[in-house]
Fold each of these.
Amino acid sequence: MKRIFAILLYLSMILSFSAMAFAETTMEKINRTGVLTIGTRTGVQGFAFINSKNEWSGFSIDLVEQAIAPEISKKLGKAIKVEKKESTPPTRIPLLTSNAVDLIAETMTDTRSRRESVDFSLTYFVTGAQFLVKKGSPIKGGQDIAGKRIAALKGSTSARIIREKYSSAQLLEVPDQTAAFQALTQGQVDAYTSDGTYLAGLIGKAQNPGDWLIAGDFYTYEPYGMAMRRNESDFRELVNNGLMEAIESGKYFELYEKWFGPKGEVPYPLTAENKRFLSLQVVPK
């Protein structure tokens, strides 16, 4: 019996080492399939959403298709296709770690705790959390939410900060923005808190935009990065090179104007401070 057990253990070890030896890197997978699969959103106006023609659209998707995918194609010496899968705050890291997607390209904040599970690109967008309220609301910022019912996306940075720093508020975690805005319009909550870009997008597509206000200064710092599997420096370098080239060439700012300029999907002006921050991330060639 001991001999049989030893043989089985040996075979198990051989199979484990074989699996490790033949595990594909992200670049090997893309080279084999000709496809870069990204996890992105379906309902974040301006960033990543399904438009009226049932097409994936948005700033982060454009960055992948016009800046990152060309960099990968150049490295591989062949054209690659970009495929999209829906990701949400609770599912995006599992999608990456299970190899279902290769890159998360949406409104994902780069945090130290998330870096324990995934790697991030350079910061490609900066915003912060605020509050969406009905016009005339007494909520002017975080100092006013004690005892108030506050909606936040499940698994989001905003939900965590409200729980940790504003424990006197009544936090309601919701699955998506539609549920959050519905709860707000129906009076089930007093405010919805999320990144300012999300809130501006909701106002932009509301039936009566004038009924809503974004309240308060940023109470969080939300540096968005594109997430990928850990310890794949070759892939991360290509993602970063694509983003740096877009910033340096001006392509980034053209796309920003398209989606967030005065005539864009979600007007959200780029501050001089943030523009300088983005530019300072571009290292010399």
Note: The CA atoms of residues 260 and 266 lie 5 Å apart.
Amino acid sequence: MRARLTSLLAFSALGAVVAGCSHSAPSGAPSPSAIAPAASSRSAQMKPEDTEFWTPVPRVVTPGATYGAPPSDAIVLFGGTDMNEWVQMKDKSPAQWPVSDGVVTVNKKAGSIETKRSFNNYQLHIEWRIPEGITGTSQARGNSGVFLATIGRGEDGYELQVLDSYNNATYVTGQAGSIYKQSVPLVNANRKPGEWQQYDVIWTAPVFNADGSLKSPAYVTAFFNGVLVQNHFQLRGYTKYIGIPEYVPHGPSPIELQAHGDPSAPISYRNIWLREL
């Protein structure tokens, strides 16, 4: 009885709203336009200055002189001269990857490196090159990876794959531009070995509640050589070589560059910078 009375009261209130509208509703349930004022009607009563806002004024950022050059508010993680922003992952000792002619090359024996600093949300620019004359097939051909956040458990993290995917077949969740084992790139935008490639990434870090449960997931938008390959993709957890992705609670995290153990010649990186968001 109470449920029926509640329903009748709600229907009566709805009828009163409809009766007060200028448009008559058809028989049955009232249309949304009969209940809520139309946007065009509200706009007709406004002045131009009602939608003109003067504050807050965006701060000034000077863009780079050329495409890919760091803007004035960027944190330059590798500018071509030293590896002062990086450490070896295994023991946090100074990074041992060699630098020459503005380029840093993976040292597979030394292992993967990570940033000294930790980050939450950011815009990242990074350039990489597969050596000309690369050998091998599938995942054993110029393999590396940009881990957008490491989570303090070995090399666990969220990996944007680096690989020679120019005329090199492999599983599509493992080709260049993929979120490893989770998201296929929208297109294959690879240049051939010997040419420089560019990633431009927007990383939204996951957020966790006080009890460690997931509050909001991680998202990635990525451009590969100026072409969109990941469109605000929602990650299902950190990327795993074997098994189902899962989230484990963590805070701000370093960025990792992977020294993969495949037998092909090591790849190189240059012009790495980041803007915290």
Note: The chain has two domains: 2-51, 75-276.
Amino acid sequence: MDSKQHQRAAQVGSSPAGRAVVAAWLVHLYTATGAALAMLTVMAVFQGATVRALWLGLAAMVVDGTDGMLARHLQVKLHIPWFDGALLDNIVDYLTYAFTPMVLLWSMGYLGDGAVATVLAVLPLLASAYQFCRVDAKTADHLFLGFPSYWNVVAFYIVVLDLDRITVALLLIVCAVLVFIPVGYVYPSRTERLQGLTLALTAVWLVSYAVLLSQVPSPSPLWLTISLAYVVYYVALSLHLTTRRARERRAERIPLLPVQAGPPRGPADS
């Protein structure tokens, strides 16, 4: 590169538009670190470091929970319109939310042995593959349609609570079926209803995740209660919003009956 090209590159990098493009690329790179975290998680699993794998899962959740807000704030779609950040996010999410948790549960023996373990490991992956390819997976009012493939959260509770194989199998099957049931689940960073409260409680839940992970294999009952209370809140709010959406749709489909005019009123009728 000659001196003129260096000068032009410097001018582009120092201009507001150039800085915006650089910032947009950094956001995409931030999202892509989730793929690296997924690989590190698999490596930790194969090394028998289950707790380290779950810590990496927490880091992946933090990245996933913040990259979208950064992307919207910095308008990355405007500055790099030809790069599909949503597709990148889906690829990373499938790895961190579906694939690596199943590798962890399978390798640690929570799924049993032989063909049963294989089926239980593959079932969530197939269900999530379907969900990630749905064009309506996220609704216009910012809800996830169907169980949002939170297999990493499921795996976290399985390990922390040290659930038995039968309970694990039932839990995975139920959640896989819920992928196909059109219940709207809260999208914490985007669902507008009670968003401030939801974000605050999500932050508390992330703290509880870290505390419980530091306490394995003897988690505190208090922190378990705090953690599971958030799950109850999340499910309750999701069901409430789903019910409200159903009522609103029914109301939109009911035609308004025309008001029938009565006979002309004379002086005696007034």
Note: The chain is about 70% helix and 0% strand.
Amino acid sequence: METVNLELFGKDVKVLKALSTAKNVSVTKAPVLISGEAGVGKRTLGLFIHQSSSRSEGPLINVDCSLDAKEVENQILGYRDQETGKFHKGALESANGGTVIFSNVDGLEDSFQKRLHSILNELSDYDIDLRIISTTTKNLSKLVGSGRFYRGLFTAISSNSINLTPLRERISDLQMISSHLVNICSEGQKVIGQDGMSKICSHYWTHNIQELKAIIEASVEKSEVDCLEANDILIGERRAVSMMAEDDSEGIRLMSLKDAEKLLIKKALVHTSENRTQAAKILGVSIRTLRNKINEYRQDGSAFFVNLR
């Protein structure tokens, strides 16, 4: 299991407050809701909470709730293989004594939200003891108010809430983390020059630390100089910064091309907090094409797209 490097969170006052809250709640078994933009470190903070708790020796299982609805249900509750008849345990049972992270919890289908709430309330009846950590890029309380997220489930998972501030709002952290990443990636052989740092600070980091790390790694690898200036920082090039890297554990299961297309569009919208312009850029399609696809999925009755603002 990876070890969390707290230096990559930064030293901003709001970040330090979030880390302090995480340390305090780690000694309890109470559920935690972590919110923030894509790539800001929500899942990593969840890992830190688990590692800092008395459950650190127990299992840690991550479920990406933005995946296909049936796949998510199977991962959480378990399923029986139709060919062999063997039952595969779900995360709730497999993580007994440990922690389950519901990444992108807002992606749960409406009907399953109510069912999951009921199941979580009954875990003790089956001698299942685990902590639930949830992450989201959305404001769940607003989704509850608009009827887009089940209030009972929200109450069950949000007794402790932590928000991680976007990297672009923490310039001093952006500079510090960039220098730290260059030092690590180059094994202390390279630094960032003034022009290079100015280019980094002026960029809108849509995927926050996740994106910054990918850019720094590529820049260090391709540069032949010891001091990285603006031309050496590979921002703006068509790079494959994976929007799925933060939360996926097993990747995409085999499915039809149509279902895969719908899933990728859903994930792009989840990771951009439903910003259609940014999602279209990530997917490499026009905003018109994305709009047409959303309307198509709405007509099919897909709950996520029906509820899309």
Note: The beta strands are 32-35, 60-64, 78-80, 87-89, 99-103, 131-136, 160-163, 191-192, 227-228.
